[in-house]
């Protein structure tokens, strides 16, 4: 992931401000807040500036996923081109949904909050939508998870990694 973060940081910061690059990276699936905070650390953006940018960037796609992804997937599955891809995305998300199914709010919070590959707000939102978890409950769980991930990634990015690269 760090190589991907470095690539995005380097290439985006040529066209937009470093802060804009961090905000954009935080919106990208797979990278999300984790990648945004790593990028901010690498770009030497102070944490007090980076954290709100990363949280905002990570939150923006969430309501759209929660509200519209099932409808979008339903339409896309009707086309031969996208059917396989959508099925694969749904299967992959549902394959990671056991703890969310079992513990709902806290399962979703931990799924989003513990920054491991394949977890995060995007996948958590997709799982919540596919499981038809109440939107208020899932939004609060995802926001709580984002805050948890922020704390963890702050320590990693500005503590451990920050000390290695500075």
TrEMBL record:
The chain crosses the membrane at residues 21-43, 49-69, 105-128, 140-161. The keyword Transport does not apply. InterPro entries: Sm_multidrug_ex. It comes from the Bacteria. Pfam families: Sm_multidrug_ex. Keywords: Membrane, Transmembrane, Transmembrane helix. This is Small multi-drug export protein. It comes from Blautia difficilis.
